Amino acid sequence: MSASLSSEEHTNSYYAATRNDLTDYPVLQGEVETEICVIGAGFTGTAAALTMAERGHAVTLLEQHRISWGASGRNGGQLIHGLGGTSRLRPLIGDEAIWKLHYRGNDIIKERIEKYNIECDFKFGYIEVALKPSHMRGLLEDFEEHKQRDLDHHLKLMDKDEVCSVLGTDAFIGGMTNDLNGHLHPLNLCAGEARAAASLGAKIFEQSGVTDIVHGDKVKVITAEGTVIADKVLIAGNAYHHLEQKNLSGLVFPAGSFIIATEPLSDDEVKAINPLDLAVVDLNNVLDYYRMSADNRLLFGGRCNYSGRVPESIQAIMVPRMLKVYPSMEGKRIDYEWGGNIGIVIKRVPLLGRITNNVFYSMGYSGHGVAPTHIAAEVMSDAMEGNDDILRAYEQINHFRIPLGQWFGNQIVALGMLYFRMRDLLW
Ligand SMILES: Cc1cc2nc3c(=O)[nH]c(=O)nc-3n(C[C@H](O)[C@H](O)[C@H](O)COP(=O)(O)OP(=O)(O)OC[C@H]3O[C@@H](n4cnc5c(N)ncnc54)[C@H](O)[C@@H]3O)c2cc1C
Known about the structure:
single chain
């Protein structure tokens, strides 16, 4: 049970232990010419590579470690609609365009699972739970917005007793289910999308970290043993990359989020705590999230740290949080504990843009990324084909840049998060 955030193979997570696809793509050696070079094979990079391959482009995908090694292979697996920063984007693109994007990530993922037969334990079922009255007001607003779109039949507002009946805990004062959202095995989804891209001709290289990008009409993407010469490049390294510092430093900050997986529970135990098999997320700013795995483990995640260090014992931090919701889990064996970096952007709008007219980037989903990465991948694919209306809206967001380097930036972000944590506790 290790919790490395940086080893070259996958971290020792429940997902890595149950992955279908032991990816073993070659290391890039020598020179490769391509139309589109994508850097980073998490959801953003892999989904974009697949979209571009589906549209008939020659694509090369470079990953420094393994497919889905970063946040995409380690997350809570909660498929939650939306793209983040809606309130800032709405005045720029309008309500209609926002709603078109809202569930687009869910749709893309569903279509791909079906089209490419990707086995990733996908299930519908999701609930947001409230810990205080302001959370309930937020849920009501969300319900009303869905009602205006005739989507309210997918939602159900619940009081404390109703939540207790579906989650077997009185820890929450209410909640709202949404049957358009759900949960899945993220590492298996991402590896499946990579496999699909490769089947359509995309060239994929693992253990091929990009060290430099040389700009020009043709862009040179340099790795230790090779070079890709590309018409266009998409940087999709999220919280794990250090490329293009002059343009991108001080904008996205890595923050650790951590998950524990219990031993498999009996059917009766599952029936007592999550009979509808819902993905559960609370509405705090610094939130907890949990769900059952396909083999009946409780996967319980949350907590953020901004130091970049992995706690000595993740379970020492996470078990008390789990027991607060489910005292009955006392004494359960913890079989896996792991963490990963999310990319925090101060304004909580994903950072989509371009450095030149042929080098693009997409990152910084601030902890909500399974669906948003797939939306962003499509937006970036459209933009690389010259249809950049949505990208131009993202580029108008005036992102807050923290100067003086990563360490200083992380302290500022940590202070900001402390403020939000206090808000969670106080009102
Ligand atoms: C513990 C945890 C739980 C989470 N839970 C949820 C959840 O339940 N639901 C949800 O919606 N979101 C969740 N998130 C957020 C979500 O996982 C991320 O927003 C999303 O996966 C980001 O995808 P990405 O492809 O942009 O980045 P990543 O998945 O981090 O991928 C970036 C990739 O780029 C590679 N890379 C970096 N630099 C280079 C380079 N120089 N050369 C080559 N490759 C490079 C990295 O190795 C990595 O594989 C969670 C995140 C974490 C960490």
